[in-house]
Amino acid sequence: MSALAETLTVRDVRTTDLDAVAELERISFPVPWKREFFASEVGLAHRFNRVVRATDGKLVGYVFCAFAAGEIHVNKIAVDPLYRRRGIAGLLMKEVLDFSTRILAEEIFLEVRPSNLPARNFYTLLGFREVGRRPQYYADGEDALVMSLFLQPRRP
Ligand SMILES: CC(C)(COP(=O)(O)OP(=O)(O)OC[C@H]1O[C@@H](n2cnc3c(N)ncnc32)[C@H](O)[C@@H]1OP(=O)(O)O)[C@@H](O)C(=O)NCCC(=O)NCCS
Predict the structure, then answer these.
(1) Mean of the pLDDT values across residues 111-121?
(2) Which of 62, 75, 105, 138 has the fewest CB atoms found within 10 Å of its own CB?
(3) Cα-to-centroid distance, 107 and ligand 1 (Å)
(4) How confident is the model at residue 147 (pLDDT cuts 50, 70, 90)?
């Protein structure tokens, strides 16, 4: 564990996190989810939603996932710009990978903008591969690349 990771708290998202989540979302995405959308995800069944907070309480990252039938879909992941390139998204994805082991998931997938080279690089380094393209997926008309990480078959 890095020196930074030792000072961070990772836990399930709570309603009290939502203002900070929505603010980080707003500065991280060209077409951000609204606070109400995140709120509707908290507490739903078949969700894995985690936040990272620094020792001073500042929210520095989050991941929102849905899962069903052996698949985990990463809906959102973001890290505060002042904390990027310090392994926090890696920490969040490790949470997702550990969770995938617990539920015996077989695949993790997500959509990413072709223009989002930092995220594509990040996912590729984790072992994700491009498996498809959804035309005009985003509200501003940009396509989405579908990226998938196939996990070891865990079902008997
Ligand atoms: C993508 C994002 C979540 C990465 O978060 P992060 O905490 O900076 O990522 P990490 O520090 O764990 O990066 C791990 C590796 O991914 C790659 N990577 C991350 N950001 C990168 C960038 N800007 N350019 C190139 N490679 C990058 C690097 O290989 C990095 O390792 P290194 O720093 O040792 O070179 C962050 O940039 C972000 O919040 N972006 C805005 C929201 C977003 O686009 N989310 C994804 C939507 S699909």
Answers:
(1) 98
(2) 138
(3) 21
(4) very high
Rg (CA), the chain: 15
Measured in Å, how far apart are the chain's first and last C-alpha atoms? Answer: 33
Ligand 1 site-directed mutation target among 84, 93, 123, 147, most atoms within 8 Å of CB: 84
| Dihedral angle sign, alpha carbons of residues 95, 147, 138, 87 | positive
Q: What structural domains and CATH numbers belong to the chain? A: 3-109 (3.40.630.30)
Tokens of 85: 């390139």
Query: Which residues' Cβ are closer than 6 Å to ligand 1?
Result: 28-29, 77-79, 84-90, 112, 116, 118-119, 121-122, 125
